[in-house]
Amino acid sequence: MHTIRSSMISVLSVIALSCDGGGPSNPFVDPPCSDKIDNDGDGLTDYPDDPGCVHPTDDSEDSGAMPLCSDGRDNDGDGLTDYPYDPGCTLPNVDDETDDCPGGPSCPQCANGVDDDLNGTIDHGSDPGCQSAGDPTEVIDDPDACGAMLQVRHLPPDGKDSGTLDASSVSGLATSCGGGGGAPAIAYVFALSRPMVVVASTNSAATMVDTVLDLRSAECAGSGSSLACNDDVVGSPGTTSSTITKALGAGTYYVIVQGADVTQIGEYSLTVDRFAGEGSACSSIPDCGPGLLCRIPAGGAQLVCSQPVCGDGLDDDGDGKLDFPADPGCVSAVDADEADDCPSGPGCPDCSDGVDNDLDSLIDYPADTTCKAASNDSEACATTEGVVALTMPVTMGDLTSATHDVFPTCSLTTAMAKDRAYRLDVPTLSSLVLTVTGVDTVTSLLNSSCAGTPIQCGDAQTMTLANVAAGAYFFVVDGRVTTTTGAYTINASGKIANGASCESALAQSGAFTCGDGFACKGAAGA
User: Fold this and answer.
1) Distances (CA, A) of 121 to 96, 229, 251
2) Which helix (H) or strand (E) holds 293?
3) For residues 506, 508, 514 and 518, what is the CA-based torsion angle, rounded to 10 degrees?
4) Are the C-beta atoms of 229 and 308 separated by less than 8 Å?
5) Which of 219, 242, 308, 464 has the most CB atoms within 10 Å of its CB?
6) Reduced to 3 states, what is the DSSP secondary structure of residue 110?
7) 3 in helix, strand or coil?
8) Radius of gyration of the chain from Cα atoms?
């Protein structure tokens, strides 16, 4: 009897202690969020079903709802709960846990099951660069990676960001194309888990300052870490935005947006696109990064993103000559075909035909130094880029990367302007018309020696000649002034004299046609 009375006194003591306003402490009464009763009459009972319950011991079913990323619930049903474990939660106060992990395109690096920064550890819980599963990058934060005064940001998953360049963040790094020297700048760090082609650009209406882009390796501030640099988009005169296209291997990189000088303060917009790199499986050209083709390389068995045939390091046509400039079928490193009929075919260029065409005792590329490539069509024209044959009605060209070699006799304003030279092999023609459109140019037509007084020279778009003798000619496109640059188009047409040969490449391509009432007939070679 004494024992029972003592127990009752203990219970009453506990109940009495609960009267001080500190909340229910009766061991026989569950908290409202665990008592299996719909206390607030909202049709939902207890934690976790009732959003008014913050946790099972909550003494009210009417508590304010917590953000989804800190409410103790697996709201998106992926088996992961709240920050820092759910990849949909970038911070505890985020009110959305949804994500497309582990294989979706928006899955952050710290939850995608890949060693993105190649340090031997993977994702949140293992990789020291991951503060949470929602961390967009596995790269360890190093605020001074590119210098103590230069702010470093993580590149967003979609590769887009904007901001303002000002004196609060500046670059002291030296670049090959401008910027640095205390110019306002922001650095972005990103990682690639496989080879990709990266295109970084500030070429946007939202960019209000003259920018320079500098792409750097993981040793951002280290000497020699700059991989590419651009000040102003190539081929766009007057543009002060910048663009870099670069094939990169797996690893960590920095792209720095900076002012062209210390006075450039204002808004910018950055976009970094990432495309499938060399060797990646593909089904069509758009799958691959800029400069790559979706094709089956020589010796391969499936479609992969590859360099063009004339720059892939393979002897695709099996002639023992490898790529541009050694293969006579390659006009440039981006040519998609190595095919040629050298050394004795009618289409073999002078610089690969085994003949000393200019009688200087030097034969073909590379022995004849006038030949800049095996595909050049002249051993006589002393040009930096070499000579390319005109064989089609329309030929595209560009002076942007050309150099100055020729002084047109009809214009003194082109003294140091860029130029390019082309060869025409023509039958006897009753007329020849050459038209250049695009940039402002001066053109010259030279004889087979590629020297001496031009047959015709002028700054008009169209050059017209009558009664042209059969033979080789050289057509030079020169900038109208020293600053002339950019793309142009050559249109070639002509009428073949009645009874003259129609076997030339220009005739076969349709650039040259027979006179009225005549047709190209007879056995080839006759």
Assistant:
1) 27, 32, 14
2) strand 293-295
3) 170
4) no
5) 242
6) helix
7) helix
8) 36
What are the structural domains, with CATH classification, of the chain? 152-276 (2.60.120.380), 317-379 (no CATH), 387-514 (2.60.120.380)
Q: Are 242 and 231 in contact (CB under 8 A)?
A: yes
Measured from the Cβ of residue 91, the count of other Cβ atoms closer than 10 Å reads 12
Distance, CA of 21 to CA of 17 (rounded, Å):
9
In whole angstroms, how far apart are CA 311 and each of 250, 307, 334? Answer: 22, 6, 6
Whether 428 and 496 have beta carbons less than 8 Å apart is answered as yes
Q: Which of 89, 92, 77, 97 is nearest to 136 (CA)?
A: 89
432: region left, alpha or beta (phi > 0 left; psi from -120 to 50 alpha): beta
Residue reference for tokens 């990367």: 401
Low-confidence residues in the chain, pLDDT < 50: 1-25, 27
The pLDDT, as a whole number, for residue 412 is 65
> What is the percentage of the chain residues whose pLDDT exceeds 90?
52
In three-state form (DSSP H/G/I as H, E/B as E, the rest C), the secondary structure along 309-342 is HHHCCCCCCCCCCCHHHHCCCCCCCCCCCCCCCC
Nearest to 493 by CA among 519, 514, 520, 513: 513
CA gap 287, 285 in Å, rounded? 5
Q: Transcribe 345-388 into DSSP letters.
A: STT--GGGSSS-TTSSS--STTTSTT-SSTT-S-SS---SS-EE
Task: Say how far residue 484 (Cα) sits from the centre of its chain.
Answer: 26
Can you give 32-73 as a three-state secondary structure string?
CCCCCCCCCCCCCCCCCCCCCCCCCCCCCCCCCCCCHHHCCC
Angstrom distances, CA of residue 158 to CA of 107, 240, 273, 341: 11, 24, 8, 48
Residues 6+ apart with CB under 8 A from 380: 357, 358, 370, 448, 449, 450, 451
Per-residue pLDDT tens digits for 344-394: 998 899 999 999 988 889 999 999 988 989 999 888 888 888 888 899 999
Antiparallel, parallel or unpaired: β 196-201 and 266-276: antiparallel
Kindly tell me the number of DSSP H helices and DSSP E strands found in the chain. Answer: 3, 22
The sign of the torsion formed by the CA atoms of 131, 133, 135, 141 equals positive
How many residues are present in the chain? 526
Which residue in the block uniquely carries the two structure tokens 């650095």? 187
CA distance 158 to 139: 17
- The sign of the CA dihedral 207, 209, 210, 216 is negative
